[in-house]
Amino acid sequence: MSGVNLPPKALFLSPDGKIYPDTLICSGMISAELNGKPCPYAQNGRLPDLVPLDKNEPGYSPDKGKPGDLCPPCAKQQLANLGHWQGHGQQTFPEELLPLRLFKCRMWLWLVVPGLHDAEPTQLITDN
After folding, report:
1. pLDDT in tens, 55-100
2. Does residue 101 come out as left (phi exceeding 0), alpha (psi in the -120 to 50 range) or beta?
3. Residue 4: CB partners within 8 Å, gap ≥ 6?
4. Which end of the chain is more exposed for a tag (fewer CB within 10 A), N or C?
């Protein structure tokens, strides 16, 4: 499968506390919701590239964020920073992920995008 050795574009948070890269979830390799098939919203088994929200585009919703905020095109909703959900359902998340913006995808899975902080949703901060 291509893209396995690339850094994840997203990290999916499972209810059992495990964290999976987009290559495993979007490709359908381990997501029960996808029945072993690639996500219909994925691009080559990966999360689609982030796009700035545009209130004039079809499908725009304030639930996804404000105009100009970066958002996966397959997101259904943004849910604040992951830290806001620490302890929800007795889940605990790694400290370094807590400031990241949390999304719910169209398949109803939770995900964060490395480098997309909720405090600065118009910028993707990459580490070199």
Report:
1. 999 989 999 999 999 999 999 999 999 999 998 778 899 999 999 9
2. beta
3. 23
4. C
Sequence-ordered list of residues with C-beta below 8 angstroms from that of 76, at least 6 positions apart, any chain: 63, 64, 103, 104, 105, 106, 108
Q: Give dist(CA 98, CA 107) in Å, integer.
A: 22
Report the DSSP beta bridge partners of residue 123. Answer: none
Residues 37-53: pLDDT tens digits?
899 999 999 999 999 99
* Structural contact between residues 45 and 52, judged by C-beta atoms closer than 8 angstroms: no
CB 118 within 8 A of CB 110: no
Nearest to 105 by CA among 68, 50, 55: 50
